[in-house]
């Protein structure tokens, strides 16, 4: 049995769901988890204006109220000419998967989330992503420099692999993030869509396993 997590590091609901996802993994040791990046706003060229910032702040308030997740509102409001393109950070998650296939990709995913939502870093910038990604992998004991991560992130292989994830997201019929699927004997079924509790997910997984 495999749990498939489809999300985007710059999706606020995915960020809020991070604590629940961690609880799921902790309560079910040995659970096989596949991370698929969804490309929520991949390729966007729209500059985030004041109206767009206020729209996101409303979502952040709802996520914070439900999940208790920490948000750096000041960093968002201070951004100038910021294009909310999620392809670069999704590709960074994929680059980590290419560099260290045995890594805990969920923790790397969360490192990019924290960088954007708490540290206020620019997760559309390749150099910043390389620093974040290299540090996240180093925390798990993998060797590598920010320069090596940047090379992997910049590669055609990473670009194509990210597009493959986006295509898988479409094939699965994902309509929002996060979405969870369970795969058993090669068959994939949707488990949940949107914010859910760890208890709901683990109960559903145990029912499937039984």
UniProtKB/TrEMBL annotation:
One term of GO molecular function: oxidoreductase activity
InterPro entries in UniProt: DSBA-like_thioredoxin_dom, Thioredoxin-like_sf
Listed PANTHER family: DSBA FAMILY PROTEIN, GLUTATHIONE S-TRANSFERASE KAPPA
Protein name: Thioredoxin
Residue stretches making up the DSBA-like thioredoxin domain: 4-205
Pfam families given in the database record: DSBA
Organism expressing this protein natively: Caballeronia glathei
Ranges that cross the membrane: none
């Amino acid at each position: 049995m495999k749990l498939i997590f489809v999300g985007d590091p710059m999706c606020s609901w995915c960020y809020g769901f991070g604590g629940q996802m961690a609880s799921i993994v902790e309560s079910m040791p040995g659970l096989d988890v596949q991370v698929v990046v969804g490309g929520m706003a991949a390729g966007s060229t729209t500059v985030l204006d004041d109206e767009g910032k206020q729209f996101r702040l409303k979502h952040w308030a709802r996520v914070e109220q439900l999940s208790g997740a920490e948000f750096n509102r000041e960093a968002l409001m201070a951004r100038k000419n910021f294009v909310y393109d999620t392809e670069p950070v999704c590709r960074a998650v994929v680059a980590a998967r290419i560099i260290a296939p045995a890594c805990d990709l969920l923790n790397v995913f969360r490192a990019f989330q924290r960088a954007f939502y708490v540290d206020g870093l620019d997760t559309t910038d390749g150099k910043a992503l390389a620093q974040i990604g290299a540090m996240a992998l180093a925390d798990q004991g993998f060797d590598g420099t920010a320069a090596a991560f940047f090379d992997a992130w910049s590669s055609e292989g990473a670009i194509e692999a990210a597009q493959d994830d986006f295509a898988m997201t479409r094939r699965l019929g994902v309509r929002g993030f996060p979405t969870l699927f369970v795969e058993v004997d090669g068959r994939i079924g949707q488990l949940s869509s949107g914010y859910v509790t760890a208890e709901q997910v683990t109960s559903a997984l145990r029912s499937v396993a039984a």
